Amino acid sequence: MVVVYRGKHCPICTRYLTTINELLADFHAQGVDVVAVSADSAEQVETQLTDISPAFPVGYGMSIEQMRDLGLYISTPRSDAETDHPFPEPGLFVINGAGQIQILDISNAPFARPDLNIVLGGIKFVRNPDNNYPIRGTYA
Known about the structure:
Layout: E1 2-4, H1 11-29, E2 35-37, H2 42-52, E3 58-59, H3 64-69, E4 74-75, E5 87-88, E6 91-95, E7 101-106, H4 116-127
């Protein structure tokens, strides 16, 4: 599972990363590795993660081109107090064993993100072979 987050300036992101850390063993029990990434600098990430101490990899330095390649919404800071660079709005990608996106959520605001307990329940459901659950929807 790849979680794209806005960055250090976003307290909602910090809470989301904390929740991932709390549920990490449950994700691992389903065979799901978790990584998170933002456009923040290494220094910004280190500062933010001091309190979280994530047990999963956290990347940084995401480029605008990478954000566009993932279909993410991109925001510019409202002020220098927020951050000093364009940043992605939230995205979540659950990739199955065949390398396909099984679950996808992209938002244009920090307030709209999937509940991680519901995502975990969905992963359990789609990974149960008795359910024979296919990837849903098509992208127009």
